[in-house]
Amino acid sequence: MLDARKQNTDTLRTPDWYKTATRWTQLTFVEDDPEKYDPAFWIDVFKRTKSNAVCLSAGGYVAYYPSKVPYHYVSRYLGDKDIFGALVDAARKLDMHVMARVDPHAIHDDAAKAHPEWVMVNADGTPRRHWAYPDVWVTNAYGDYNTVFMPDVVKEIIREYDIDAIFANRWQGHGVDYSEDSARRFKDMFGYGLPRKADADDPAWQAWLQWRRHVLTGVIAQWDDAIKAIRPHASFIPNMSGASLMEFDLSVITRHCPFLVVDHQGRKGLEVGWSAGRNGKRIRATFPDRPVMLITSIGPEEEYRWKDAVTSPEEIQLWINNGTTHGLYAWFTKFNGVVPDKRWVEPVADSFNLQAAVEPVLESMKPTAEIAVIDPSTTLRHWAPEDRHSAEKHDLGFYHALVEARLPFELLSDQVLTKDNLDRFRVIILANASCLSDAQNAAIRAYVERGGSIIAAYETSLRDENGKMRPEFGLADVFGVKFVSGPRGIVKNTYLALSGDHPIGEGYEGASRIMGGTRLIHVEPVTSTATPFLYIPDFPDLPMEEVYPRKAPEGAAVIARETGRGGRAVYIPWNIGEIFWEVFAVDHARLIANAVRWALGKMPRVVIEGPGVIDMALRENDEGIALSLFNLTNPMMMKGPIRENYPLAGQTVSVEIPKGKSVDKAWLVVADRAADFSLRNGRAEVEVPGIERLEVLHLTWT
């Protein structure tokens, strides 16, 4: 196998350069860095971290090279230096790939006075000062600033420097621009006045989201075309911020973005340790074959923005390593070239070296799983960005339950429900895909008719793609139910009664009822179905003397059926994903896991037994599989920063052996040694000893 340096040399300055850009250092300069920072320190960081790519601040708000573009502000500390160009040259001498960073979200007074049309306008008609630094102005991302001025900056950088790409940060704008130009163009396209607030039910707001998507995807195409006209192998790489890609025209991304960058730099508030890996799954949900970089900050990611601070070493490693587990390439960012606190260097180097160790095995394989959770972009678009986290609770609950259940799974975007994409999976899960078009419903129905299994909950398919309530579920025939009424709630003190003897009701010995949801839909089964759980009609929660059920259980709370096509369907007409995410009741986790295992209809391809919490990722090729096992076991799993790593005890991994194959070798990639295994009933049982952070079990077939 070629070593990494030789691979980089082979792809330098070719259209495939990004394929060997797998470990990124990003240095975001501050204005006084030209006088104060030490370039030798950063060149040493490139080497210690085995970085094969670098992203360096070049221009936009501040230029760190001697720009000749009018009104392109050059750092007043630059003098006769070119700190951007000097580090580009140093990186190229190390055979590194190089990307220039631009940040076009603000401008200085001289540019604002000469070109007031470049400044974003508030709803009251005043030009917008920067919210954090009022001495400068926020730019209008939807007008000439991004389509006339910034293309000149981009062309200057790509023409003058030996780089592979331009990366733009904060280029998408900051809310609605109320300039006369934006108002006129928006009205010409959609006929509405600009919306005054973010309201998912306002047609003008929904139209503005579409207009913004149209304008920004045009910017991607324009900048990329300008770059390729000068340097054909290079690309424009926009920072996509989130990971679901719902804000962009997918066809433009397909044509212009050879790889994608997720800007989710660390945990914030009560965020789970698996969140980094979820970013990778959400990108793969739409673009399964496109490389993805995960930006990780060395500091805490909280609203108070301590951008020059350093978080705990274990927290840094948690984020980078979980990204590595799920196929995200490592990228760390440091704001300010001056380094008063160097405690981040060693954990970043350790994480990057760990990724370098597992890359040779993982890079030739593709993610695989029997289960997919549908990423509901059509539904989430109807929520204002600041409220979208509430809508995502349904999906996050199912995600966490599957992690706890140790069931490998992928995400699949509802924007790409093709036959090939769906048929990769044995089971698909719709946690609350309330908004689905007729075409999307038809694709899911056809998948079930081909033998696929489905699990759905709450409002799934009850609304059309525009958010309008249907009189009946779009997938009523698939669920085997008829809509009666709802949703109803919030309802307190609700319960479900176990009913009959069904695998979905297993594991509740000693209980006749469990906690219910808080938002309920009333349905009636209309085909041959089982009802493992029934609603207990709700009753008062106070006074305490009144807290008892008045009626016998009635109404289906879980519906399960054989489809007759080789698959199975489960429908749960209440908010199980959302309420599990809020409460984390073990009975709800068990119900989700039972439903998934029953819908699979067989033993899962991978079964792991042992203590602790593990985040898993499964990859395969013709020669074998690679199972990544990431140790999430930590008292701070739900809230960072993690103080200490707790090594995981040994695990027993049982893997289904493909027909016609036998096991050639079982190898522990991180430990770099063979693993003991035995064969039983068509499966390989492998003993994986203690896992410190990450282990990759590589099984090869013969």
Summarize the structure.
By secondary structure, the protein is of the alpha/beta class. It has 20 helices and 31 strands.
Provide an overview of this structure.
By secondary structure, this protein is an alpha/beta fold. The protein is built from 20 helices and 31 strands. Helix 15 (393-404) packs across helix 19 (576-583). The model has no long low-confidence stretch (mean pLDDT 95). It folds into 3 domains: 4-258, TIM Barrel; 371-600, Class I glutamine amidotransferase (GATase) domain (Rossmann fold, 3-Layer(aba) Sandwich), CATH 3.40.50; 606-701, Golgi alpha-mannosidase II (Immunoglobulin-like, Sandwich), CATH 2.60.40.1180. A 9-stranded mixed sheet has the order 13-12-14-15-22-21-20-17-18. The longest helix is centred in the N-terminal third of the chain and has 28 residues, at 203-230. Helix 11 (313-325) links the parallel strand 9 (292-297) and strand 10 (329-335).
